[in-house]
Specification:
single chain; about 100 residues; alpha+beta; two-stranded antiparallel sheet; 5 strands; binds zinc ion
Amino acid sequence: MTEEPEIVERSSGYWIVDNGPIDGPFIELSEASKQLEKLSEIRRDAAYVKNPNFCPFCRSDEIDATKLETFENMVFQWVRCDTCETEWHDIYELTGYEEVIAGRE
Ligand SMILES: [Zn+2]
């Protein structure tokens, strides 16, 4: 996940290099562009979830997390980018629980 994927051209068409071999089937440039965009989006999402300290839309680190909202067993946090002014929700999901105070048996 270090190198950015890119489109390469071969005589029979185009291919997206994503740290893997160039083995086809080769595709149209428009299709390659679409796939590259999708792949970049998936990488961006994964990078943000791992380290949510930058704007996933413009990569600025001028972001502010504000109010928390809950819905069923999920929690949303509003986040806003001061640079591009995009707003989004960070989504938190219940992953477990721990006992804090033992109840009566
Ligand atoms: Zn931004």
